[in-house]
Specification:
It is built from 8 helices and 5 strands; from the N terminus they run H-H-H-H-H-E-E-E-E-H-H-E-H. It has helices at about 5-15, 25-30, 35-40, 45-60, 65, 115-120, 125-130, 140-145, and strands at about 70-80, 85-90, 95-100, 110-115, 135-140. A hairpin with a 4-residue loop joins strand 1 and strand 2.
Length: about 160
């Protein structure tokens, strides 16, 4: 992925079988892309595939032993050309993911742009720094939001 032209980059990523990419490889891909390139990828037809794959893997990345008796609904709002909402429900040592906004009241809501979301979930972004720079907005339980990384295995690039 050394080629920096967005057309070739998008073509390469379109051909990529995301289901076969390990979390660590995904983290390396994200780390190797500039914010501009991440934006270009997320302004293409790849956006839905990338978001679907990331949220689809959250269940496998979940660490029930770390969550213990936690019961919480986390709403993720990823902003871009269109806003996309996913919800992560943690209860009884399990994690379920759903696309779209439910009627339930979330304990915390995280709002960020596409590139910041990819950096965050790939371990390439520091959530505290992102929050302080207002690239990550948190509504509701800030304490829960600040501890979310311990409930999931975040890949290291």
């Amino acid at each position: 992925m050394a080629d920096n032209s967005s057309g070739n980059l998008t073509d390469e990523l379109t051909a990529l079988d995301f289901a076969a990419v390990s979390p660590q490889e995904f983290a390396r891909i994200v780390k190797g892309l500039s914010a501009k390139q991440l934006g270009e990828v997320m302004h293409s037809e790849l956006r839905a595939r990338v978001l679907g794959e990331v949220f689809g893997r959250m269940k496998q990345q979940f660490r029930p032993e770390a969550a213990g008796p936690l019961k919480a609904l986390i709403r993720w709002k990823i902003t871009g050309d269109t806003d996309t909402v996913y919800e992560t429900a943690i209860a009884d040592g399990a994690c379920t993911i759903s696309e779209g906004r439910s009627d339930a009241e979330p304990r915390t809501t995280l709002v960020m742009a596409d590139a910041e979301f990819l950096k965050l979930v790939s371990g390439n972004g520091n959530p505290v720094t992102m929050f302080m720079m207002r690239k990550l907005k948190v509504a509701g339980d800030v304490g829960l939001a600040s501890g979310l990384t311990r409930y999931f295995d975040i890949p290291k690039a």
